[in-house]
Design a protein that fits this description.
This protein is α+β, with helices and mostly antiparallel strands. The protein folds into 4 domains: 110 residues, Butyryl-Coa Dehydrogenase, subunit A, domain 1 (Orthogonal Bundle); 118 residues, Butyryl-CoA Dehydrogenase, subunit A, domain 2 (Beta Barrel), CATH 2.40.110.10; 144 residues, Butyryl-CoA Dehydrogenase, subunit A, domain 3 (Up-down Bundle), CATH 1.20.140; 29 residues. It has 16 helices and 7 strands. Strands 2-3-7-6 form a 4-stranded antiparallel beta sheet, with no helix packed on it. A 3-stranded mixed beta sheet has the order 1-4-5, with helices on one face. A hairpin with a 2-residue loop joins β2 and β3. It is globular. It comes from Coniochaeta ligniaria NRRL 30616. It holds the Pfam family Acyl-CoA_dh_1. This is Acyl-CoA dehydrogenase family member 10.
């Protein structure tokens, strides 16, 4: 056990109140400092500015508010930028996935806090993708501005005409003509082109539809937003929210031309790249959802003990049903955290590929539980819980969105289920062994051997 875990007085700070002892033992001194700094940043700089952010968006929905630019500069100066990038990358600030998960939970207490620290989706996945797969020239041109916060990117994969949960069906065409690639087709999602701060898309498309291996038909390109031929048809609302100023869009690519040097890794390598992108970035949403749920839980406790609210002469928190609700929320929240921390630790110890099952567990369990917990908090607020009087409706919408954002949870359950089915033969051998030993024991005891096969 390190002296950090055992003796560090910093653990008395509220930033560490929910971090389990086994995780504290693994935190470096750098991580302890960063977790505490992130807590102070979110509590003192972000949450108190939530209404300022909304006010600055009114009348200018698709322009990044001045307060966001201001906070990003301040966070970068404090050394809080890019904390998500794992420490095996040379560009990393130095945290492990486990250490960052403690930071990300705190970020989740304010929907946009992660963006102030350049730790928001889709930037996190895109930065890791570029750091992992780009050549030096591409890194200098595209990665470095993202790390410095002077550019912004989006990932363009989903399409309206196919079932994109099966990514082999992605059909937007990429055709090489001389020293250019020409792109034609339609896309959904990807941050809004209407926000002029958006710099480029990382686009997955079909470059060789006749390749005998369906996993080698697609390629990944960097497409600057200023390229002629890209049209945003509309903003896609999520459960009625436009999520300005970034949001999501529906796009048409009409003879969009980019230079061949914008291809990442090479033709036919898109699935390799996509799988590499689905490591830590896949559970960053889950990490933040826990922080969001903690804040919703706090709001529920405040409602339960509000002396202005006394239906039938009792505090809301004095009804047995609500006492049990609070207990169940607390239990589920702590369980969610353990699932995510286990996934992060598994990736650190064994790598992203070995941690895929733990990642899938987080991706399936956490958003569903988050929706349920926030829904219970809304119930405690009654009609007011459905309005802008609390952040609960926006929280619930984000949690529901995350159940689809990295692929439908049904697809992840299917993957986990298929993997589990493969273990059946091992169990069959074990259980056959039980019966054989039972047969021998029966003979030894002179008892009748009974088989139910």
């Amino acid at each position: 056990m390190s002296p950090t875990a055992q003796d560090n007085p910093a653990f008395a700070h509220p930033a560490f109140a929910r971090i389990p002892p086994w995780v504290r033992q693994k935190l470096s001194l750098l991580a302890v400092d960063k977790i505490q700094a992130v807590y102070e940043w979110v509590e003192n700089e972000c949450i108190p500015r939530e209404q300022i952010m909304k006010a600055q968006l009114e009348g200018s929905r698709w322009k990044t508010p001045k307060v966001m630019h201001e906070l990003r500069e301040k966070a970068k100066a404090k050394g809080l930028f890019n904390l998500f990038l794992p420490n095996h990358f040379k560009e990393s600030p130095g945290l492990t996935n486990l250490e960052y998960s403690c930071c990300a939970e705190i970020m989740g207490r304010c929907y946009w806090a992660a963006q102030t620290m350049n730790c928001h989706a889709p930037e996190t996945g895109n930065i890791e993708l570029l750091a992992k797969y780009c050549n030096p020239a591409q890194k200098a041109k595209w990665l470095q501005p993202l790390l410095e916060g002077t550019a912004s990117s989006a990932y363009s994969m989903t399409e309206p005409d196919v079932a994109s949960s099966d990514a082999t069906q992605i059909g937007i065409r990429i055709t090489r003509e001389g020293d250019q690639y020409v792109i034609n087709g339609r896309k959904l999602y990807g941050n809004c082109l209407w926000n002029r701060d958006l710099s480029f898309y990382i686009l997955m498309g079909c470059s060789d539809p006749n390749h005998p291996d369906k996993w080698s038909r697609h390629s990944t390109l960097i497409v600057p937003c200023s390229t002629p031929g890209i049209t945003q048809v509309r903003n896609l609302t999520i459960m009625g929210y436009d999520h300005a100023p970034d949001g999501h869009g529906e796009y048409v690519y009409d003879n969009v031309r980019v230079p061949v040097e914008n291809i990442i890794l090479g033709e036919g390598r898109a699935f390799e790249i996509a799988q590499g992108r689905l490591g830590p970035g896949r559970i960053h949403h889950c990490m933040r959802l826990i922080g969001q749920c903690e804040r919703a839980y706090e709001l529920a406790l405040l409602r339960c003990t509000d002396r202005r609210k006394t239906p039938r002469g009792k505090l809301i928190g004095e009804f047995d049903s609500n006492i049990e609700r609070v207990a169940q929320m607390r239990l589920e929240l702590d369980a969610m955290r353990l699932v995510v921390l286990n996934a992060a630790d598994t990736m650190d110890l064994l790598g992203n590929k070995a941690g895929k099952r733990a990642i899938a567990q987080s991706k399936i369990l956490v958003p569903v539980a988050a929706c349920r917990i926030i829904d219970e908090c809304m119930q405690m607020y009654g009609g007011q819980g459905l309005t802008q009087h609390t952040p609960l409706p926006e929280m619930w919408t984000y949690a529901r969105f995350v159940r689809v954002a990295d692929g439908p949870d049904a697809a992840h359950r299917h993957q986990v289920g298929r993997e589990e089915m493969k273990t059946a033969e091992g169990f069959r051998e074990r259980h056959e062994g039980y019966k054989e030993r039972y047969r021998r024991f029966a003979e030894g005891y002179g008892e009748k051997y009974v088989s139910f096969d």
